[in-house]
Structure formats: C-alpha cells, structure tokens
Amino acid sequence: MPYPALSLYHATAQSLHTCDVFRGEQRFILRFRKQSAPEEEARRLLELIRNGGAVARICNRVDDAQAIYRALIASGARDVTCVLLHARFPLHERQRREQCISNLVGKESQRTPEQRIIIAGTQVLEQSLDYDVDVMVSDFAPIDLLLQRAGRLHRHNRCRPDDHREPVLEIVIPYDEQGEPDWRRWRAIYEPYILWRSLATLCDGLTDDTRIVTLPRDYRTLIEAVYSAAPVVGRYAGEVAKAEQEYRKTIDAQTAKARSPLTPDAMIRAPIVEHGGRSYIEEETGAEASWQLAKTRLGDRVTLVPVYRVNGELSLDPDGTFRIPTDVPPTLEQMKDVINVAVPVSDRAVIAAYRDEHRDRALRWTWSAIPAPLRGLHPLPLDVQTHSITLNRRRLRLDNELGLVIENGDVDMSGDWFEEDL
Q1: Which end of the chain is more exposed for a tag (fewer CB within 10 A), N or C?
Q2: Which domains are seen in the chain, by residue range?
C-alpha cells in the first residue's frame, strides 16, 4: 500500500485506503558530501547561490549553526541576505526571525531568482515554518527527518534560478581520520544505530554519491527499511550490527533503571537512593516540597531568563528599562516580559548548576511565592558589560546576532555530556 494510506479497523474486518496528495509527486536529487570547517561551509553556501537562489543550512547543533553564520558574516559577501534561527534565541527575537524568514522565503514572499538568501539554523527550520528554498543543505539525520526537510524544497510555485531548476538535498556527513562516518558529536541528539541504518538505506542505489528520491512514493520504502527489524546487508552492515548491540544494551539499561525503585517513602526527607536527594519545587505553590522527586525522564532541559543587575535592581535588559521587582512577584505585564526573553537550554552542565540544592542565590528567584506562569523558569544573571556568566565551567553569553552562545572552558563538549538544543 503506497503512502499516504489510511487503515480502517472494525470488529470483524479491516480495510486499507490511499489517496492522492495535493502536491503530486515531488522528485529531488539527494547527494552526500563531507563536512568541512565553518569557513569552508560558508564558502560552499555562497557558491551555491552565486547566480541567485535561496539555500537553507540545517545543523544538528546550535554551536555549529552559530559558527557557520559567523563565518558567513565574516566573509563580507555583498548582496546576500543571511538569517540565523535556532532555539537559543529569546522568544521575542526568535519570533522576529521567524517572521523575517517568512517574508524572505515564505509562501507569500515575492522573491526573485536574482535574490541571494541563506537561512542557517537547526531543527527548528523543519518545524511549523512554511517556507521554500532552492537548495537544502543538512547535517545527516534519521531518514524521516531528512525527508521532512526535503519537503521545503521547491515547495511553492515560483520562478527558479537557472542553477536550481532541480531541487537538491545535500547531506553533510562527518568523517573520522580513517574516512568512516563519525557520529560522536551527534550521539546525544540522535541514536547512532538509527543513523547507521539511515545511511545504509540511502546508500543502497547510490551512484557517485547521488540518488533520485520521489515523494511520497518512496516514503514507505525508505522509512520501513530504517525502522524495521530486518538485518542490513551490503555497505555498512557491520557498523549497523555493532551499533544495534550498543543500542540494545542502552535500552536494557534504561528499562532496568525504570523498573528499579529510586526512593523510599515519598513523604519523608530521606535522600533518593540513586544519585542523591534533590529538593523539589511544588508545581502548584512554587514552594519547596517536604519530599523529593524521583525523576524518570532520561533527558532534560532548563528554561533561563537573562537578567541584569542595574543600580541594585533586577532588569531584563542591560539599560534597566524593563525592571522586575525582587521583593514582590511581578505583575501580569511584567511576567509577559519575562516569558518573552526566556531561552531553553539543554546543556547538561548548565542544567546541573540549576539542579544543585546549594546553588547561588543569584540563580533563584527571590519572591516568596513563584507565580504560576513563571514556574520552570530560572534567572540567568548576566554581566552588564559582557552579557555573560560562567556556570560549571561553561561560559554563557547572550549575543544579539548569535543568540545564547555556550562556550566550554576545559570541558570536552563533544560527547554525551553535552546535549544540544534545537
């Protein structure tokens, strides 16, 4: 049964139906290339639109998107519009950039073939935004995400530059010193086993690092090949088998952990058996609970509100224009302002700083009761001059063009300790 399909189940029978898709079949060229340094990535993007066109560059990590955007700006290229979008912008700035992208390459945009546009960002570029580009350059990702990103290619009817009559999805793969795909910097984001299966599936039928994909006809074939339990044969079969073993070990460990009791009686102040006890804030009252929380979620993130100390008062900006009280809860309008500058962060070292029971008072709100709309949000105190702070050997800096930049001190950010935001 081809995609899209609808399955109807009754008590005594079942039926399968398919339907036409509103866009018809979409054919695009898929090609692979090796990941390069940010400066080379920027040169490649500029070359793609040398004679006009719009290209989107989707990175798996925020810091990679920031580095490529920084290299684009440093190149000094003229008559090129560059926009950066990721989750680590304050909410109001992210919304402004989303509107900018819509104006440039959205459905109602009136861009011409001569315009040169580069949209750099992360996975947020594949979510909810209705835009259209001539070329998509993406870090390698699970097959379903790659196909979703390809849906932004030639999405709307418009006149295309001569160089981009055919839609192209260019997939970037990092390689190690032996010339083999290397997923280490992305393993905290995507399961290596799925990446290996996705790569093996796409390489089947590859000619000169290129293949033709037709959607929606190829959806079911490609996705089922990756997510089925069938063994992989041919190229990368050994890597897939090895990654599957590691994947099964991880699943077994997580299953055992989920089944093990983590805490004694929930109403006593005994420490949690595993990983030690941590104070918990009641969702309803915002006050510290008389018990401790045994969290089952393996991943986590924290939402931070950049704040500044200006003339002894707390402010949402370094000029002291948007001040918030420290002795009484903020008003409704002030709470809206607070939410408007919030930034989600998934870096585990930063999260650990806010999970610490003995963390500095500057990392806590000083109100006696936290208003319901602000529960789950935490202050990020920044220096008025440098717009930065160091937490757990991470330097966090709020940049007008790059968003929240997280730089490592003497900590290796390439492994599992660093978990990326979108």
Answers
A1: N
A2: 23-243 (3.40.50.300), 297-408 (no CATH)
